[in-house]
Each structure stands twice: as C-alpha cells, then as structure tokens.
C-alpha cells in the first residue's frame, strides 16, 4: 500500500498548477479558477495558511490531469 498524499496549502497548489501550465482565469470570493490552454479547468479555494483536505486535493489533481504520484517524488 502506498503512502497518502502530501499536505498542501492553496498557495502551494497554485505554484504546482502554474508549473503545469495553468493560469488564473478569474476569482469569485475565495475561489480561484485556473485554466490551461488545452481547456482543462480547476478551482482552488484560497484560504491562507489552511491545508487543503486530501479529497479536495485529489479532485484538483483529477481536474488538472496531474498524476498524484508526481507529488511523492
């Protein structure tokens, strides 16, 4: 059995998304929407200093089509 996902804050997830070619499209309240040029889209809640839950992180990675194994390296 593999270990769980590492914990990330929203700012760390934003850095990860930018590294994979995503740009901020817009923000409504505390939710920022990031888009890739190929049409992928994901929403990240922007709550400073708070760690994202594992389920939310998995959904963001799924939306962005980023392999969770890349985070463990």
SS summary, helix count: 2
CATH topology: Metal Transport, Frataxin, Chain A
End-to-end distance: 16 Å
What's the average pLDDT?
92
Main pleated sheet: 3 strands, antiparallel
- State the fourth-level CATH superfamily: Hypothetical protein
- Strands, count: 3
CATH class: Alpha Beta
Number of domains: 1
Description of the molecule:
It is a single chain. The protein has helices spanning 10-19, 54-64, and strands spanning 23-28, 31-35, 41-45. It is of the alpha+beta class and 73 residues long. It has a single domain (10-67), classed as Hypothetical protein (Metal Transport, Frataxin, Chain A), CATH 3.30.920. It has two helices and three strands. It is globular and about 35 Å long. Strands 1-2-3 form a three-stranded antiparallel β-sheet.
List keywords for this structure.
about 70 residues; Metal Transport, Frataxin, Chain A; 2 helices; alpha+beta; about 30% helix; globular; 3-stranded antiparallel β-sheet
């Amino acid at each position: 059995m593999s270990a769980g996902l590492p914990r990330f804050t929203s700012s760390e997830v934003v850095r990860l998304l930018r590294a994979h070619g995503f740009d901020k499209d817009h923000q409504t309240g505390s939710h920022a929407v990031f888009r890739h040029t190929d049409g992928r889209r994901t929403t990240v809640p922007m709550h400073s200093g708070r760690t994202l839950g594992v389920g939310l992180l998995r959904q963001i990675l799924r939306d962005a089509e980023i392999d969770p194994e890349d985070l463990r390296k």
